Amino acid sequence: MWSSRPFMWELCVFLLSSMLLRLATAYSKSYVMEDYCDDLIDLEYNGLSMVHVRLTELGIYRPHMSCTFAVRAPPMHRLTLVMEWIDIAEGRFGYCSDYLAVLEGDLNKTYYTDNMDAKLCGQKKPAAITSSRRGLTLHFDSNQIEEGAGFSAVFTSFHEGSCQTGEFSCENGRCIDQRLKCDKYDNCGDFSDDCLLTVGDVVAAVIITSIVFLLIVGGAVLYCYRDKIKFRKKCPVIGANPDGVYHPTTEPAGKDDGATEQLTAV
Ligand SMILES: [Ca+2]
């Protein structure tokens, strides 16, 4: 039991340092779209493999909003766009009063393609969207009538062919950054990089288990120590007085005095 403690400690240190290293080398970044209107996020320039974007941090988006946000993948790469959730006000008769448009290309040259819905609204998530080139652009527009919460989406850079070291091979044949595996986001577009537990979940579980283990061991040590003290009190050392304190044996006070008296009489 005691010999497992160093191992647990080393495992905790390893997992924590791995987690800190992952955090130190950022490969993903979150953006609030309304703070980056008309901006282009170049993944290669920023050293990113994934971009998480949310329309607004508020509970509801602003009326009369018009905002464009673009992402560009590194050379020889394309983009997967996965909508996490969407809540955009629908008009009557299936007409989108507010809408999100997903367009091919970056800010300078955008266009609709057949594999994308022209305008997204309502609360139904579309299937994963794949760019045919390096760029994808989001354009959001709202009127003054009614608003929703907006949307949250994930852009992921990928390439096809042979995956290199440090890349994860998706079941759909795409290669993505290995670090995107088990990060709770569907980066492959087919969920094949998903896991039941994320890296953060595993680290948290190990830390909690270690704390519980140390508490149990510490409690057991304290319990035994307390029992040891009780035992000593119940079973005093042989030769000790009932008060538990040992006193050196001394002759009765009057014995020496009597001997002295006899010698004096002689
Ligand atoms: Ca993922």
UniProtKB/TrEMBL annotation:
Keywords: Disulfide bond, Membrane, Signal, Transmembrane, Transmembrane helix
Protein name (record): CUB domain-containing protein
Region (Disordered): 246-266
SUPFAM superfamilies the record matches: LDL receptor-like module, Spermadhesin, CUB domain
CUB domain segment(s): 37-158
InterPro entries in alphabetical order: CUB_dom (IPR000859), LDL_receptor-like_sf (IPR036055), LDrepeatLR_classA_rpt (IPR002172), LRAD2/Mig-13-like (IPR042333), Sperma_CUB_dom_sf (IPR035914)
Endpoints of the signal sequence: 1-26
Annotated S-S bridges: C163-C175, C170-C188
Gene3D superfamilies for the chain: Low-density Lipoprotein Receptor, Spermadhesin, CUB domain
Pfam families: CUB (PF00431), Ldl_recept_a (PF00057)
Transmembrane segments: 202-225
Cross-referenced CDD domains: CUB, LDLa
